[in-house]
Structures are given as structure tokens and as C-alpha cells.
Amino acid sequence: MLQHALSFTRYVVFVAVLAALAASVALILYQVAVVAEVIFDAVRQGGLFPKSGKALAVGLIEAMDVFLIAIVALVIGLGLHRLFVMKLCRCRDGLRSTISRISKAILSAS
To answer: What is the rounded CA–CA span in Å between residue 36 and residue 30?
Structure first.
């Protein structure tokens, strides 16, 4: 009974995964539009004036900030999916043979 209830939490976490991935995609798409607007505003202001260069730099730095937040949301969503939703891969040969292969690889490298 308890195992069934705990396995159900996988679906609850899947909702959080979908929300994080949707938030990430929405932020990325929104920021692409913002970056395009910042670039068009800098071109529209005209020329190579320091004032337009500063406005362009500030707009692009603000956009990179939101892009980083979107990437964090993406990594969180993918990490939650990997940890809680995806079934764990079962090793065919067990832990002992995996450890022996790793130790052989380390000894052969040194």
C-alpha cells in the first residue's frame, strides 16, 4: 500500500517537471522577442552614438539575465524528470563487476 502511494508521487513530480519546462520555454521565447526589440531600438535610434551603445548593452545584459533564469528552470525540470519520473536503469552485471571494471581502468591509466 505504501509502495503504491509512493509510486504515485512520480506523477505529482511530473506536473512540476512540465511546469518548469513550460516556464523555461516561455521565458526563452519571450526573451528572443525582447532581444530583437532591443536591437531594433538601437538601430532605430541611429548610428554609433555612445548613448545608443549603452542602451544596447544594458538591454542585452538584462536579456542574458532572463536567459540564465530560463536555463536554470530547464535544468531543474530535466533534473527532476531524471531523478523522480524516469525509471532507473538496471545494470545487467551488478555492482561488483562495475567496480572491478572501474578499478581496472584506473590501474591501466596510471
So the answer is: 10
CA distance 64 to 19: 22
User: Which range of residues forms the domain containing residue 90?
Assistant: 2-109
pLDDT averaged per 10 residues in sequence order, the chain, 110 residues: 75 90 95 91 76 83 94 93 71 62 76
Look at the chain and report how many structural domains it folds into: 1
Question: Are the C-beta atoms of residues 56 and 38 closer than 8 Å to each other?
Answer: yes
Least Cα distance to 24 among 85, 86, 66, 80 occurs for 66
Burial class (CB in 10 A: 0-12, 13-18, 19+), 73: buried
State residue 110's pLDDT score: 62
pLDDT of residue 33: 95
